[in-house]
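Crash report, auto-generated. Payload:
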Amino acid sequence: MTFNLCLFPRRALLLSGVAAFATGLAATGPALAQDIAMGGTLTVAADTEPRSLNPAIVASNGVFYVASKIVEPLAEMDYETGLRPLLAESWEGSEDGLTFTVTLREGVTWSDGAPFTSADVAFSAMQVWKPLQNIGRQIFANLEAVETPDDLTAVFTFSEPTPAQLIENAMPAVTAVLPRHLLEGQDLGEAEYNAAPVGTGPFVLAEHKPGEFYRLTKNETYWDDGKPYLDQILYRVMPDAGAKAAGLETGDIQLTAFSAVPLTDMARLDALDDVSVIPGGYEGITYNITVDFNHRTEELSDPVVRKAIAHAIDRDFLVDVVFLGYATAATGPVPPTAGDFYKADTPAYEFDVDKANAMLDEAGYARGDGDTRFSLRLRPAPWFQQTRDTGDYVRQALAKIGIDVEIVTADPGGHIAAVYTDHDFDLAIGSPVWRNDPAISTTILYQGGLPAGQPFANQWGYDSAAMNDIIARGQTTMDSGERIEVYNAFQDLAMEDLPILFLTHFTFITVARDEVQNVANNPRWATSSWADTWIAPAE
Amino acid sequence: MSVRPEAAPPSRPAWWRWLGRRVLQAVPVLIIVALGVFALLELAEGDAVDAYLAGIGAGDATFAAELRERYGLDDTLGARFVTYATRLAVLDLGHSVAFSRDVLSVITERLPNTLLMMVSAILLSSSLGVILGGVAAMRRGGLVDGAISVTALVLNAMPGFWLGLLGIILFAVKLRWLPIGGMSTLDGDFSATGRILDVARHLVLPVTTLALTYLALYVRLMRGAMIDAASSGWVTAARARGVPARRVTLRHIAYPALLPVVTMIGLQSGTLLGGSVVIETVFSIPGLGSLAFEAVTQRDLPLLAGILLAGTALVVVMNIVVDLVYGLLDPRVSLDAKARA
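Recovered output after restart:
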């Protein structure tokens, strides 16, 4: 039993203003039972319509935003306890890391009435998470079998030791359980289920009108008695950011998540009487802004150049100007929202343009024509306004140390191919995600020897024996405390070698009308089930 | 594509032959479009799997390879082209990668929205343009003429999305007269008539925005054509015969001036389809324009080809209709071309 595993100890939360705000909300948020108004429709904006609504195959925010209300994982993140049991009631990893035993909740049924059992968990793990899921493929790479001694027990057995801490931290995102009775024997990649999922969650998908809306209605047989509070959730497909801001103002929509409204509109919306800007509820999916160096470019293979670039970039300026304060300056690859994993005193590169210039002078990169030492091509990831803006700022900042930067733009598909397959870049601005454990999507940014074509991973041409060794140790260290120490060493080495440079950490922002209650009350709120969300009646 | 007098419909027996010829003329256009789509998407960096991975934010190289196999992207360029071409040759639009559905069903779901918006916008834009252009021509050089011309040009210079957002802020947010977007009220419960009125209410802003940005064309065209016609011999002759002034204006000046306007409608239909990309995004209308945008960013070759072919077919049909109308309006081209020759 490891309920008290501390993903988000209060101490760690207070390190970040964003997270501290969320704790405040969580403490004052939950209303007394008699206050809660039942029923009503919550209308929210959706940017896009994912091609698949199957969260067990596609573990991504876009899918979770809708599907996490329908299909549930074994456990969800929680501000107070770290992890809150959902379909699992308890779990325990063996000391040798070879088994992980999950005890399931009793009396849960699928929304079609069939009972939920350990066979569903075994099916999901062996047929979906391990072979098909974008993140699960890595976490469950060594999963050999899932035994089901009874209907409520699932025993995961691994061929190589797998840290229980890693599985726990990954549970909210990678363990959405699918109904075996509806899917067994089908081609899961093309199953009709992917467009019309059936789950155990508080809501069921009632209607999808492509290009217009998704309608989710209350699951009358939901296992958590009395929930959900809402009758309906309506996702209106609205691609345009300006229209979403207008919709919040008129009340046509009550909530936008994932910073769907531009940061520059936040102050105006926050000033409205009945709309609030809520910067919490995303700590479990903290994003980072990085400068990725292509080590195949001669100058960038020199650590002195990389460190000089680090000195030339003012991270506080980025926080203030690009993020309008909604971010924190990075000290390394792990964000402060990571709790115990976070190490603050890593090797630091303070903002000092003169020092950067001196370092480059000393290393022999003399200024030539027009004061330029050398030229680089920079590809900013196109998907966030902030990644593009950071690219523009980095270009200006590097001009001051005699590095001429040419910005090369592409759309998302083009960017992925150019950076991660063709390595056609000198610098890139990336936005890797922190997913609750360094081993899920952070160490992969430093792991050597990956094949070309693996996105959001080390395609920089960096391959260090010391780094690879630390990453391997993290995978074979079973004790949670020792594991944290290994990852502290990882952060130190990452900042010492500086194969890539972490600039800022940021979480998304929700903008909601004030009648929506219990917003942002867990660290993955937008991608959680919303079973306890309710709407205060107009006064 | 210009309207040639000999392309207009001759007398009834030859009508089908004429139509057949026009449709056949469209075939090379469609082939060129199909080749162009393939070439352009080939030239773009990244494929459908790259675009998909960008969206889901994680995956490994084997995962990407499996997806490429599933989508048929692991074949050689030649093999992929052959698959693409043979499918199109038998009019099979194939399977959309981005939507995991039949291209045909994705397109037919959205085509009516775009058609409704486009046809309404063209009709509004051209009829308003004819009236305003006519008034301007009759008051040539006056205050009214200046006001109409300047307003039309200013509207023409405004980017559509900006005009649309202004409309949303004024009429939807401040005045609350109109909805902010979408095709219909999502949780509305309407009678049949109520439903039509609801859709009409939703279309007011996007249609007006589209129409206003193209208004200047029709105003200038109508005004110029009327001024030309006014100085023609037949007008002088009509006046000399003592035809009432009102009849001269309508019958002898305005009526012939309609011909270039009708031509322009045919030419504009393609441009409007392009303009609808932006308007559909701003107003959250699920149409062909926003679908095309999605298809490009997702590198969805079958879908993009399907949309562009549907769009091309639409423009070809519009032009055939325009030719027919042209023949009806102008007695000189409604005669059998061969008989005249």
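Post-recovery validation: Chain A touches chain B through 60 residues (CB under 8 Å).
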